[in-house]
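Sharing a chain and its predicted structure for anyone who wants a worked example. Both blocks are below, sequence first, tokens second.
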Amino acid sequence: MTETAVPHADPASGSPAGGPDGRAPKRSYAKLAADESREDYSLRYAPHSYRRWSETTVASTALGGIAYLADFAIGASIVFTYGFTSGLASILCAATIIFTTGIPIARACAKYGLDMDLITRGAGFGYFGSTLTSLIYASFTFIFFALEGSIMAQAMHEVFGLPLPIGYLLTTLIVIPIVFRGMGALAKVQAWTQPIWLIGLVLPFVILLFNSPGSFGDFTSFGGTEGAGSGFSWLGFGLGTGVALSLIAQIGEQADYLRFMPAKTEANKKRWNLAVLAAGPGWVIIGAAKQIGGALLAFVALEAVGRTHALEPIAPQVEALKPWLGSVALPVAALFVVVSQIKINVTNAYSGSLSWSNFFSRVTHRHPGRVWYIFLNLAIALTLMEMNMFAALNKLLGFYSNVGIAWIAAVAADLVINKRVGWSPKYIEFKRAYLYAVNPAGFGAMVIASVVSILAFFGLFGEYAEAFSTFIAAGLALILCPLIAWATKGRYYLARPNPVNGPDVEFAEGTDITATHTCTVCETAYELPDIADCPAHSGPICSLCCSLDADCGDLCTKKPTGEPVLMPMPEVRTR
């Protein structure tokens, strides 16, 4: 969006300023909110005209964000606690669940140009119902920013003797200039750092293969450090899976990039499908391999550095590199850790700014710009680091899993089941003008599944229910979302029909899909999917102006209009 020559609003709120000539008030936005090179369409549909990156660039940028070393710490923690057999089964089971639920979400985000929050709105949660999931997602970003930042600070402490509190602050500040500039800067950083990261990732295992090949076999009989034993345990399997499933909300960060995927056509559909699969659910294949690999490196380093340091990725990296690199093993390992953590934490900070923007725009009807919420997200993450959240890793992630998987499973159930059988609209409607505040199908399923699974997690239903609380959350969400949609006959998905976007339209051959329509409120042109029919303003309104309007009283959903008041639409045909 660009700033417009209309009467200026309060620059912090973006609310309309009254016109002196009696015309309808017009809205202009604060400078940062109006600059889409930084804003990246944080609260709206990503237009085709902005999706200038190739399928490969979008996919590689999205996959660059999974460079994090929390996988190493999580995998090591699971195997150390529950033993190799149960730990391996946990990691593979969680990866299967994450991959399966991630497929429909990734495809929807890439197809419709929407982030995870906007997908959630139209996939069973409603306009305000998805406000809660914005908080869940924001929590994911700052929890994992803190975890990754802790790992980077540990590396700086080992190399430079930098006190951990100062290291925490430095790891927080270092990402701000990159995240401030948006997708363009993120794509460059991920591309430039990828070779260093790939070499650093593979080298320790190559050295281990040549210098200590027997350690691979020894690892398979490892019984953990807490007496779990090397055999399979159902309790260990359930608890370990719960920890690994804390990563399920990572699909949201992948979606924040996938929304910039170019339109799918006959010419690019094979590349498009492969890129979406790889950069969407495909991240977890690499993630699971990193968890197992991290556990292996920690096992090999255990005797030399002790359990506490073995769970910190820097120490196992150094021990693995020593046979070939000797005294330079520490700085080389530290470089790998710092690069890895910058790659993931720019994504955590970026996605956190998007989720906070979505949350506050609906609650306060204000939007000063995405970049201001970077500081909020980083402040919370820094506080967690200073509180040493790394020490409570398993418990914290196990608890988070119950809520995260209930959310993702409910969205996946809507996309796969409800939309296919007709209980939910075939397309994703994300605009306030057409949505109920709360849809009980997805929102109700998530709340019920979360409450029951959290009670189980705290031991209310016995030790096996505690161990398998995340399975309870997933199962209930998958069952309840379609069940509630069927019971309510899908009536809470749309407050009124969308007269122009229609169910999954496809533009006729030769039509310019980037044709724009001017918002009556801010007088800026937007592509059709971002425009709603507004009876309060007697014309088209963009999705963001619609979200920020605090005075319309939701007239559009209370008194649905018959004929659209938009300008003439291009010719369309239904799929």
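Comments welcome. The first strand starts at residue 505 and ends at 507.
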